[in-house]
Amino acid sequence: MNPAHPREWAELETPVLLVEPAPLARNLARMQARATELGVRLRPHVKTHKSLALWRRQEALGARGITVSTLAEADHFFAHGVSDVLYAACIAPAKLAHALRLRQAGCALTVLVDSVASATAVAEGARAAGQRLEVALEIDTDDHRAGLKPDARELTEVAAALDGPGTHLWGVLTHAGGSYALAEPAALRACAERERAGCVEAAQRLRAAGHECREVSVGSTPTALAATSLAGVTELRAGVYVFHDLVMLGLGVCTREELALSVLTSVTGHQREKGWVLVDAGWMALSRDRGTAAQARDHGYGAVCTLDGRWLEELSFRDANQEHGILVAEPALDVARRFPLGTLLRILPNHACATAAAFPRYVLLDERGHPTSEAWERLNGW
Ligand SMILES: Cc1ncc(COP(=O)(O)O)c(C=O)c1O
């Protein structure tokens, strides 16, 4: 422990995942206000935080139901009383039995499909088990990932495959993940509108063909913050807005003051002649995500800050090994004097979801930026 640091940091064994309360509270309130203003329900994607404490904060502000990316998240949140669960990744056939177990236990689980083959497998599996599953249909509105195009012929064929005793069409869902590649406000607004319009079009086609299509679910953080109208949409899903990160900063959808997550790390050594500072947070702690590489400002493996959150522009996080981070300064800087052994630094992550996944819990800072004894557990793995 560097004697220059306040004593309350001494008990933390680095690397540690830190959350700042003020930006967190602002981020939570801002997204809830957006959903309310746009007239839709907010169904947060808990894959970012995977934490009951954080979900309870979202729920207290008005969020209703959760989105999950794994059935482990569904199990965890359902075991703690959250039963309205949307599993927003197309289901692998082998996971159907798990989904049906959750349903049988009373979880109002909705699963996702994007093909006739998958819809048929879910419908037959649920019928054979004597159960009824709610099923959402994924729509591709930005050529980014999975889903059927809003004008695809198969749309009504999938709905027909779900029209039986084992399944019920819950609605349509889209995620404009392509928004992560856009940094202009006008481009983000246009992407949000394509996301909305494509999903609404798919719902209208299904309804016109005689299928009930109650829900129209859209969202990603950039499009949720850029949308000017969500007419025809019933719910908004967003995840990373809780903490924001350097990728969101690069897209211009948040400011530095809204970055709520950081990794506390210790200086473990130097290569003085090369201007290197070695720290105990490598890619295991920060992830290998290089999401800012394609942006106007590339932050390497993260942005380096002092304990009180001041950006250290003179250090760049150039390389990461499993447990070593290599921070590089101009060789003229005497790094060993400026950042002595044991110095504590904070690293802002490129991608909050990927970084948080390495840690079992969050340590909450207080309003002065000092660590508290409060820690929020999080779930990891599948
Ligand atoms: C299906 C789906 N919905 C919603 C989200 C939330 O997006 P974001 O984290 O940008 O808010 C994601 C994120 O990957 C997703 O995959």
Summarize the structure in words.
By secondary structure, the chain is α/β, with parallel strands linked by helices. It is built from twelve helices and 17 strands. Helix 5 runs parallel beside helix 6. It binds pyridoxal-5'-phosphate. The site of pyridoxal-5'-phosphate (PLP) has 14 residues, from loops.
Give the arrangement of secondary structure elements:
Elements (H helix, E strand, L loop, with lengths): L15 E4 L1 H18 L2 E2 L9 H10 L4 E3 L2 H9 L4 E7 L5 H9 L3 E6 L2 H13 L4 E6 L15 H8 L5 E7 L11 H24 L6 E4 L2 H6 L8 E2 L9 H6 L9 E11 L4 E4 L3 H4 L16 E3 L10 E5 L4 E4 L6 H4 L5 E5 L3 H5 L4 E5 L5 E7 L5
Parallel strand pairs: 1-16, 2-9, 3-4, 4-5, 5-6, 6-7, 7-8, 8-9
Antiparallel strand pairs: 1-10, 10-11, 10-15, 11-14, 12-15, 13-14, 16-17
Helix pairs in contact: 5-6
What form results from the Cα inertia axes? elongated
How does the helix and strand content classify structurally? alpha/beta
Number of helices: 12
Task: Please mark out the parts with pLDDT under 50 across 5 or more consecutive residues, or reply none.
Answer: none
Report helical residue fraction: 25-40%
Average pLDDT over all residues: 96
Which hetero ligands occur in this complex? pyridoxal-5'-phosphate
Strand content: 15-25%
